[in-house]
Specification:
The protein is of the alpha+beta class. Helix content is 31%, strand content 22%. A hairpin with a 2-residue loop joins β12 and β13. The longest helix is centred in the last third of the chain and has 18 residues.
């Protein structure tokens, strides 16, 4: 293992940005794009020991850790990839954002056999084990906001069959989503759990690239139907071509008759696992959100452009962050985005069942 240098030689600090908050990271730029952290301090929850870097019961052995170590410190981005993370560094802003990566140490991996758990607003997906759950991704910047009362009605109609609608708003400002949630819940004796994914954690774990998107999770916590574009009303059928009646019929068959319409092999086939480019785009987006919230609009735009270049199809990033940069998600910027994607042959909506 590389001999550790004293931590004092790495005096510069960066802000580390995670989905669950920020903290100070002791590190310094190496001058070549790398960011070096002290070898003798914990990094990303891992601690250096004689036999490798360890976190709880998991350990990254010495011979693998060596790929990220130098006599001056540990390469933050290289180490992040070794432990299932991705890092995007902005030296000028003295910030580094992390997103979920791949590999055996990655958290919340998306597989048909295990729907990634999450906790928002004190509510966890695991709380509903033993029930069928439809995770409904929506946002106030999407016309699907008008569907939320209809999803509430579906929740009420099927709740006695062991079913729950769990809505997740992708708004980066919770106050944008709250009025629509309040309207859907108004006067309802059994309001569905309605959460706000302000930091993009759940969208990241479920690889949600646009809304509305719905994921079905069965009683055992397995994905019964992967990312599917579904609507609960026909308000925008002329634009999206989606039939809400077919969506409701399929939902009833699953909840009441236990027929999800897909077998396990088809679920695996249709499940959209994020690519490395999509993961890196989300790290750029996380950094852009942090910068925009601090009034660093120009720096935020750089990272939004980087995210768009990596994942041009990710409308949840490109349209969802328009309010943070002063653009109207229902205005010219959105229609320009639609035209760009249509010209490139990139679908805006991705229903699993072909629409007539």
């Amino acid at each position: 293992m590389t001999t550790a240098r004293p931590a004092e030689t790495l005096a510069r600090t960066f802000t580390a940005i995670e989905a669950d908050g920020t903290y100070t990271l002791d590190a310094r730029p190496a001058g070549d794009g790398r960011l070096l952290a002290p070898l003798d301090r914990p990094l990303l929850g891992w601690t250096r020991k004689p036999h490798g870097w360890c976190r709880d019961e998991a350990c990254l052995p010495v011979h693998r850790a060596a790929a990220a170590e130098t006599p001056e410190g540990v390469d933050v981005a290289a180490f992040a990839e070794l432990v299932g993370r991705l890092a995007v560094i902005d030296e000028d802003e003295r910030a580094v954002a992390f997103a979920e990566g791949a590999g055996p140490f990655a958290a919340g991996g998306l597989t048909a056999e295990r729907a990634p758990d999450f906790t928002l607003d004190g509510v966890s997906l695991a709380d509903f084990r033993g029930r069928k759950v439809a995770i409904v991704f929506w946002a106030s910047w999407c016309g699907c906001r008008y569907d939320l009362p209809a999803w509430q009605e579906r929740h009420e109609a099927l709740e006695r069959h062991g079913f729950t609608v769990l809505s997740v708003a992708l708004d980066r400002a919770a106050e944008d989503a709250r009025p629509w949630i309040a309207e859907a819940h108004a006067g309802r004796p059994s309001p569905h759990p309605a959460l706000v994914d302000a930091e993009g954690l759940v969208a990241e774990r479920y690889n949600v690239i646009n809304v509305p998107t719905v994921v079905w999770v069965d009683e055992q916590g397995r994905i019964a139907r992967p990312q599917d574009t579904q609507t609960a009303t026909d308000l925008f059928r002329s634009m999206n071509g989606l039939d809400s009646a077919r969506s409701l019929e399929a939902l009833r068959r699953w909840v009441v008759d236990d027929d999800a319409g897909l077998d396990a092999e088809q679920v695996r086939e249709h499940l959209r696992v994020p690519t490395m480019q999509e993961r890196r785009a989300r790290a750029h987006a996380r950094l852009a959100v942090w910068l925009a919230r601090r009034g660093r609009a120009q720096a935020a735009r750089r990272h939004l452009d980087a995210a768009a270049a990596l994942a041009p199809h990710d409308i949840a990033i490109r349209r969802g962050l328009m309010p943070l940069t002063g653009e109207d998600p229902f205005g010219d910027a959105y229609f320009a985005l639609r035209t760009e994607l249509e010209d490139a042959g990139i679908p805006l909506y991705r229903p699993l069942t072909p629409q007539e």
